[in-house]
Design brief:
Catalyzes the transfer of a ribosyl phosphate group from 5-phosphoribose 1-diphosphate to orotate, leading to the formation of orotidine monophosphate (OMP). The structure is a single chain. The model has no long low-confidence stretch (mean pLDDT about 100). Helix 1 crosses helix 3 and helix 3 crosses helix 4. A hairpin with a 5-residue loop joins strand 1 and strand 2. This protein is about 35% helix and about 30% strand. It binds 1-O-pyrophosphono-5-O-phosphono-alpha-D-ribofuranose and orotic acid (ORO).
């Protein structure tokens, strides 16, 4: 099985939960994709890193991250997968709010100013979280080259409206959820 096929099987078996849920946007849905069960799983996480690197292979970026918390293990997996391939890729974490003590940063990790960065998410529904990260990154002086997510739940139009390319490794059809 390819990495892409293996990760799809992992998401289906470990991440998909059926039942009524309220989503981050406040919308209701009949299912949830609990991506943390996947991105923090010892077998699936390395696949996440490799699949997301493959998905964005043609893009030019040297740092990756997104809005905490969903994006964090995705970015870390990509950093390690890149290192295993001999490529240096930094990661960063965009806080939901600027820290009020210490160095009072909104974005943690190596500086992103003046760098080409990829904004990632574990899953994107409205695109709101991904675009919050994009806004913070642009404010910090980074050039966001694209938004890439593991599972798309319908954020393509919102990301396109923000003028950015959008990549997703899987959609709801492939997960038998649409
Ligand atoms: O496209 P959106 O409508 O923004 O929804 C997707 C977001 O929802 C989830 O995070 P959540 O908001 O639950 O926060 P958490 O990562 O802090 O748990 C997920 O990790 C995405 O970040
Ligand atoms: O839209 C969301 O909040 C959301 C949907 C989903 O399937 N999984 C998740 O972690 N968040």
């Amino acid at each position: 099985m390819s990495d892409r096929e293996s990760l799809l099987a992992e998401i289906k078996s470990k991440g998909v939960v059926h039942g009524k849920v309220v989503l981050s946007s406040g919308k209701e849905a009949d299912f949830y994709v609990d991506m943390r069960k996947v991105t923090l799983d010892g077998q699936a996480a390395p696949l996440v890193g490799r699949v997301m690197l493959d998905l964005t292979e043609d893009l030019d970026y040297d740092a990756v991250g997104g809005l905490t918390l969903g994006a964090d293990p995705v970015a870390a997996a990509m950093l390690h997968a890149a290192a295993a391939r001999g490529r240096k890729l930094d990661a960063f974490v965009v806080r939901k709010a600027q820290k009020v003590h210490g160095l009072q940063r909104r974005i943690e990790g190596p500086d992103v100013a003046g760098r080409r960065v990829l904004a990632v998410e574990d899953t994107s529904t409205t695109g709101g979280s991904a675009l919050t990260a994009v806004e913070a990154l642009r404010e910090a002086g980074a050039e966001v080259v694209a938004v890439a997510v593991v599972v798309d739940r319908g954020a393509a139009a919102a990301v396109a409206e923000a003028g950015l390319p959008y990549r997703s490794a899987y959609g709801l059809e492939e997960l038998d959820l649409a």
